C-alpha cells in the first residue's frame, strides 16, 4: 500500500476454500485497527434490523465488534474506526459506533489530504502535538509579572566605560534605545559589557545585534555574548551589514550580562604598515545592541 499499511480484505483471500467465519474471527482479533465503512446495508445488518438470512457474514462480524466494545469500550473505541466515504452519510454509521459522540472519519476525497485524519488515528502521530510542560517558576507572588523594559533605560549594576545608551542604525533601521560601544583608543582587544539585575521577573530578552556605522569596512566583525546568572547562553559573530535579531531565555534569572567585542588586529596592522593613511577617529568601529528589551 502507498501509505505503508498492511491491509486485509476478504476479496484478496479467494484463492482457496476457506471457513470464512474462522477467517473473520482471526482478522478481527489480530488487526491493530478495523475500518467500518458506512453504508445503508451494513448499518441495517449491524444494528440487527436485517432478516437473518441476509448478509450473514456482515451480521456475524458486527456481533463480534459489538462484543469487543462491550468487553473494553475505551480500547475498542480507539481500535474500531468508522469511515464515511465520499457521497455517503454519517447516518449510515451503525448505532453501536456512536457516530455523533465519538470521532468519525469523513473522507472528502481519495488523496493524502483527504485521508489525513484517518492516518493520524492509525499512526498516533497527531498534526497538533501537545507542547512539553514548562518549568514551574512559582506563583505570581514569588515571580510577579513585569512590564517590558529596555535594558538601556535600566540601572546598570556594572559596565565598561566605552558603553553608552543611545541611538544605533543597523542596516538602515534606527534603534532608539540601544547600547552602543565606541572604543576611545586602539588596543589589541576591545570588550564592552554591562550587568543588570533581573530579580526573576522576566522571561525573555530580545535584541538586534550588529556593526554600526561604516559597513564598507569589511574587516569589522562583532562578537556578541549573553550571560545569564554567570552562565554563557548565547554567542554570535556578526559581519557589517548583516544585523540579526536574537531571543534569549532569562526566565527566573537574577542577573543578565550583555557583552560585545571585536578584534582590532586588522586595523592596527593596517596602520603599522602604512595602509589607510587617511584613517580618522570617526572611523573607529562601533557595535550595538539594538533596543534590547526584557519581557
UniProtKB/TrEMBL annotation:
Pfam families: NPCBM (PF08305), SEFIR (PF08357). Residues 1-114 form the SEFIR domain. It comes from the Bacteria. It comes from Actinokineospora iranica. InterPro entries: Galactose-bd-like_sf (IPR008979), Glyco_hyd_98_carb-bd (IPR013222), NPCBM_sf (IPR038637), SEFIR_dom (IPR013568). This is NPCBM/NEW2 domain-containing protein. SUPFAM superfamilies: Galactose-binding domain-like.
Amino acid at each position: 500500500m502507498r501509505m505503508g499499511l498492511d491491509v486485509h480484505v476478504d476479496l484478496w483471500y479467494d484463492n482457496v476454500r476457506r471457513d470464512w467465519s474462522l477467517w473473520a474471527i482471526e482478522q478481527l482479533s489480530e488487526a491493530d485497527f478495523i475500518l467500518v465503512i458506512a453504508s445503508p446495508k451494513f448499518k441495517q445488518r449491524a444494528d440487527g434490523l436485517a432478516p437473518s438470512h441476509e448478509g450473514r457474514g456482515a451480521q456475524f462480524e458486527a456481533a463480534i465488534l459489538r462484543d469487543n466494545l462491550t468487553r473494553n469500550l475505551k480500547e475498542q473505541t480507539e481500535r474500531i474506526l468508522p469511515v464515511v466515504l465520499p457521497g455517503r452519510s454519517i447516518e449510515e454509521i451503525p448505532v453501536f459506533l456512536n457516530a455523533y459522540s465519538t470521532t468519525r472519519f469523513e473522507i472528502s476525497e481519495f488523496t493524502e489530504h483527504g485521508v489525513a485524519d484517518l492516518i493520524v488515528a492509525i499512526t498516533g502521530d497527531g498534526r497538533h502535538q501537545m507542547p512539553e510542560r514548562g518549568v514551574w517558576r512559582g506563583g505570581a507572588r514569588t515571580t510577579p509579572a513585569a512590564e517590558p523594559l529596555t535594558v538601556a533605560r535600566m540601572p546598570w549594576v556594572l559596565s565598561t566605560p566605552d558603553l553608552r545608551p543611545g541611538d544605533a542604525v543597523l542596516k538602515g533601521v534606527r534603534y532608539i534605545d540601544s547600547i552602543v560601544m565606541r572604543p576611545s583608543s586602539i588596543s589589541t582587544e576591545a570588550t564592552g559589557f554591562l550587568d543588570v539585575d533581573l530579580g526573576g521577573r522576566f522571561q525573555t530578552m530580545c535584541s538586534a545585534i550588529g556593526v554600526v556605522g561604516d559597513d564598507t569596512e569589511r574587516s569589522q566583525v562583532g562578537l556578541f555574548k549573553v550571560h545569564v546568572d554567570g552562565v554563557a547562553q548565547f554567542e554570535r559573530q556578526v559581519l557589517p551589514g548583516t544585523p540579526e535579531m536574537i531571543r534569549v531565555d532569562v526566565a527566573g534569572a537574577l542577573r543578565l550580562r550583555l557583552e560585545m567585542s571585536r578584534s582590532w588586529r586588522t586595523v592596527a596592522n593596517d596602520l603599522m604598515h602604512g595602509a589607510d593613511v587617511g584613517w580618522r577617529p570617526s572611523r573607529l568601529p562601533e557595535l550595538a545592541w539594538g533596543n534590547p528589551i526584557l519581557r
